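Structure in, sequence out. Go:
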């Protein structure tokens, strides 16, 4: 891998749009990594993956799809199921997905990885960075800065891709 290659953990198509544009503007070469065993049910994960494929086609980027294992994810948040969104369950969820991304980055020889999770206005970037700090190749990029969230909304509309109405797990479905 080259110095500017970066594995981008992509939570969904919409959040990936603005993140990809920012990475490209800053000289990175992103490869997308869809690893989201938190999403429930599996059909929803497939739907989000398909939206990501549309985005990847638009930017001519490669996508790596990780095996979906919701049971393993559930085990990682055991005891925190009823926490409100943004609390301990989410911190564990970030940790689960970033650990997977870190492992994949190492396996493939990437010197850097990051996540689209920081695009969302509903997610605390500081919490994501705190979790990311435990992985040496994690790049703490706050994609919601520089108008990232609004840009993701606008690009999603432009591309006409699916935008979900809940975060991902069964506990976030209202
Ligand atoms: S609400 Fe979202 S971030 Fe929190 S645990 Fe569920 S899927 Fe993960």
């Amino acid at each position: 891998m080259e110095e500017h290659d970066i594995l981008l953990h992509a939570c969904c198509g919409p959040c990936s749009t603005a993140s990809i544009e920012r990475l490209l503007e800053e000289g990175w070469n992103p490869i997308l990594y869809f690893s989201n065993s938190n999403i429930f049910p599996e059909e929803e994960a497939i739907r989000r993956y398909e939206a990501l494929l549309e985005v990847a086609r638009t930017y001519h980027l490669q996508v790596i799809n990780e095996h979906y294992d919701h049971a393993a994810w559930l085990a990682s948040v055991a005891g925190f199921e009823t926490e409100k969104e943004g609390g301990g369950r989410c911190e564990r969820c970030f940790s689960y997905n970033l650990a997977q991304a870190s492992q994949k980055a190492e396996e493939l020889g990437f010197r850097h990885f990051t996540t689209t999770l920081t695009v969302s206005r509903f997610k605390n970037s500081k919490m994501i960075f705190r979790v990311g700090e435990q992985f040496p190749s994690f790049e703490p990029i706050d994609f919601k800065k520089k108008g990232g969230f609004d840009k993701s909304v606008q690009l999603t509309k432009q591309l006409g891709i699916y935008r979900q109405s809940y975060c991902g797990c069964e506990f976030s479905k209202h």
